Amino acid sequence: MPDLLTFLQLALILMATGVIAGILAGLLGVGGGIVIVPVLYQMFVFIDIPDEIRMHLAVGTSLTTVVATSIVSARAHSRRGAVDFELLRSWWFWILLGTLIGTAIAGYVRGDVLTAVFATVALAVAVYMAMTRPDFRLRDGLPRGIGKIVSASLIGGISAMMGIGGGTLAVPFMSACGYPVHRAVGTASAIGFLISVPATIGFAIAGWGEDALPQLSIGFVNLLGMALIAPLSTLTAPYGARLAHRLSPLALRRAFALFLALTAARMYYGLL
Prior knowledge:
The protein is mostly helical. It has helices at residues 4-28, 33-46, 51-78, 85-108, 111-131, 145-162, 167-176, 181-206, 223-244, 249-271; strands spanning 217-218, 221-222. 78% of the residues lie in helices and 1% in strands.
């Protein structure tokens, strides 16, 4: 266990992460996980968590914080009429199915595989958001039938493997289908809840009995990280939601792309 000074430093880092993650959750609909995962990963390096479980522990812990943050963020967006409940009713089963599959895969693959998935998806989305115009469209309208099944399942599965709330994938996908960006952000906040609850349970089960876990861990879920991050991210998420409705769609896209690119670069560096 780290000494008192190290513990206090880690606690301050986690608290700052909670503030930033909450604002981003409300602002971008990303559930905060895109910030939490790399910070937790570095924290676990600092306290000598083995490579084999480090990324799993970061992802599982991040997902627990997304549960609370997504609820608060979704409520804030819902009050502004920015959550599409009809879409959620149409997608929820396929999101859940994808989440369960992604969580099962994550429990078996090596940590560097999860890191590579995180970095690659984050970079791809960052490039897309930075290089396309706000009015860019792949099609008019969200897919139906098999297209809906595949897209919703992939959003759930990949998000579970990354430890994020779904907005990282859902927001650009929905925007490319002609969906208003503010409504996409609000709906993605609710999608984060659908992903984070079953994925958290899955990571707790997958890590059950691991010998090298830090204290206060339930499987691949560290309760200390959750306790320090979740309250502050929940408190600050409504401020991000209010800010989102004051910014232009272009500003939201550029902010989204910048955070994703920085995160991807840091995770790739960790693979070297």
